[in-house]
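help with this:

***
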Amino acid sequence: MVNHAIWSLIVIFLGIVFIIISTSKVKLHTFFVLIIASYLVGLLSGMPLNDIVESISKGFGDTLSSIGIVIAAGAVIGVFLERSNGALSISQALLRVFRKSRSPLSMAITGYLVSIAVFCDSGFVILSPLNKALAKETKISLVTYAVALSLGLYSTHTFVPPTPGPLASAGILGADTGSVIILGLIVAGISTLIGYVFSIFYVSKFEVKINLRENYEETKMDSFKLPSPIIALSPIIVPILLIVLKSFSNLPVHPLGTGFLKSLVDFFGHPVTALMMGVFFSFILAPNFKEPIIGHRGWVGEGLANAAMIILITGAGGSLGTVLRNSPIMDFLTYYLLRGQLTIFLPFLLAAVLKTAQGSSTVAMVTTASMIAPILGPLGLSSPIGRVLAVLSIGAGAMIISHANDSYFWVVSQLSNMDVTTAYKTHTVGTLITGVSSFIIVLVLTLILL
């Protein structure tokens, strides 16, 4: 038993090393890395050859059957929010609420809201000019704005569906999407505030030069044709409300009864229907409804093209998880995990290792979810709330840490005039602090809810 268990751990370790080296050093596309890793783990664990192929195919198909359409719809919403300047509209609405002295907080909250639908890289690119204009106007360090925004964006990027990472993790682990959204918004909100405090009290001592002609007032004048903030938020808020309402209706006390009303709520609150409703609301943001917007080469086509990669990676992650689930490795891991106390720590640690090693938070989340899905029972996380907490634990790990192998690191540093040393001392340290802080919050939730 001991020798078999040691070999099982070696196989998993080799699989992780292969994924890290192939994605970060060889630069092989993550889809093929995960498929090859599935073959590697299956062969080394002693699975019959036919079972390996069947597990890969079944895992890929089963995963995408529940999550593929949702990812595609979410990607389209993100493109419409980006191309229509809806994200900028949201940020300027918040700036009208906060005083200029508190404008870094408004940028952090903007990031928190925008990254629910827009990738954090894109969100930072969209809002970076406003960052610079505000820094010049208020005389507050541009680095303060940059880190407050980057950590706000990062928080919901790793915790709140329909962002692809947490959405895919929830699908792979079978977690209730509405519950993930509710608790994810809470954890991400606290993480965003921690990032803001870090930016104000530590990052503010770092200064960079700003080369910008416009000030904040001129930036507002240039964007007077922005969509209404309420309209801009509708593609995000409507799906979230529908999904959360469905979770509410499924409480054991049946607050909406068991008849037609509940069926209606379940229909519209299903992630597929809810995200499709979000797509329809995003169409309102378009200046027209012609081929350059809705065609193959338009905004819709761009969103679907962006979704294709995430869908393939998510499916490949499902293949790896199914191979692990069907391999002899599970018997030995189950035996030893039952004797340990790793529970909620394992998803966090594995995601943190993968994120730090290969750079992509989404890849870290999908891969970690795929690897722990077969062992949720031994980890004590197989209950509905346990699956939700596992998703959040993975999200916290996927924040640690953003450095030179992460494209987001370079987006933040280069668009904010930071040299590499300054970026490491501010943005990178910030992701470490918010990641660890977020996990502590998840740990507290685990002690309360599990």
Notes: The longest helix spans residues 49-83. The chain has a mean pLDDT of 84. Residues 2-449 form one domain. The chain has one domain: 2-449.
